[in-house]
Specification:
323 residues, mainly alpha, globular
Amino acid sequence: MSLTLNNRPDLVEPAARLLLGAIDTGDRGTPEQRRILQMVITQVWNRPDIDIEAITPLPPEAVGEIFDDPIAARRVQMILVLLEVCRHPLTTEQVELVDAYALRLGKDDAGLELARGLVNGHRDDAIAHFHAVWEDAKIELSEETLRDRYGDLDTCAPELAAELRRMREFPRGTLGREYVEFYMEHNFQLPGEGAPGPAFFVSHDMTHLIAGYGPSGPEEVALSAFQLGMNDNEMHWVLFLLSLSAYEIAALAQGPVEFTAKGSILERSGAIELMIEAVNRGSLCSGDFSVADHLALAHLTIAEVRERFSVPPPKPSFPEFIS
């Protein structure tokens, strides 16, 4: 699975022209938007011959005639939303321009709705609506064996925390041991010790370890991009939107205890490259391990789990990010 255009190479150039048109509010896009667009074209769609400085924008009225493949259209719409929220500040002109393209590609989208709300004076309502969408996705992304008991729990569950802490008895290098060490290293509360949605954080942080990303803002965005590369379903799309909302546009402050929303995180050196590389790494996996039974895999080494799901090894060449 990937964010390629459903094996439609004939759609890459029109998609590039569409996306360029959607960010051109008179400036051909911001530097951040142009960097992301060029990297998507070059590294995700494998067309280094297309230079956004040398192509002409595609007008919105031409979109419906060209993008008749619903899978390809949906993936272009996802990139549209990514580029939209990477304009700072987000403007009414940008949102209306993206809508002119996006709504010709298919259904409305949680990301499009959030962007509209952020610029039309209904920020609180938009955030509340997105939270409701996220709560549904969070259930699907929670550890399945813990979902019924701990999915919506907002209070302490010491028995769960104790069960997880016992995995520290496993050898170093195993998924279970490294999961507990991850919490100890970053001074996080174990699921069951107070953070809401403990079943989600068991699954989410096991996925962190298997994919090889830390808990900094750029790595959280990269992890959600990795999952979208593995499987571009709606729950992974909403998780990616959550990451962008929390770290790129500072719209949401929901998450682990003491989490503070940030903004423009993709402007940090190496962050865009990390996100694009994550999409490509995720697309090479043989299965979506984010929804696996992680507790049943906890006795295996992380290397063995990665081999089971054909996870490409993390590249150590990116800067060390600070949350």
